[in-house]
Amino acid sequence: MSPVVPLKQPKPKKIPDLLQLRIELAWIKPKIWRRIVVPESITLGNLHHVLQRAFNWGDYHLHEFDIDGERFGIPDPEFDWEPVRSEKRIQLKSALRGLTSFKYIYDFGDHWEHRIKVEKKLLGDPELSRCALFLGGANAAPPEDVGGAPGYEGFVAAMADPNHPEHQEMREWYGDSFNPTHFDDIALSLALQDLKI
Questions:
Q1: What order do you get walking across the sheet with 85-86 strand by strand?
Q2: Domain encompassing residue 33
Q3: Which of 1, 33, 79, 110 sits at a 20 to 30 Å CA gap from 184?
Q4: What is the CATH number for 112?
């Protein structure tokens, strides 16, 4: 009788640690910011989708990450005068290499610079290994194509003052009233939970 050889058990899959991120739009007062938790194994491509939802962007424009001077995004040989690394398979923890801050730029015309800080590292949680968690934030995100930080400042001023010379034009362009302090944290929380990363 031959000896019984135990079956080799597969190694349990490591649950990735989590990173708590604070994201703030540059050059705007009062601060527009969000705090989220993502798995450190998230790809930059998926982090792009998380950031789009966190700031209610429509993903209509080009974007890139700037991590310690290295650019990550979607390479386009026709338009990239400087090389950009593909964001598709690069995990956040690999791109950071121990750094605790980086930038995400959305819409090269309006140039929305998101300053991202890793606030802390948390133990992995199986429930959060494939999604993003919203923890907090303040103020409404600017509308698309408003003209960057200076355009947004003018937009807010025009929308707030019915006597402003551009009030009616801005209302027609935007299609509604705009409250820069309104922020629907429940809707954002649900939008991030629905996004599978």
A1: 85-86, 70-73, 63-67, 101-106, 112-122, 18-25, 33-39, 133-138
A2: 18-140+182-194
A3: 110
A4: 3.10.290.30
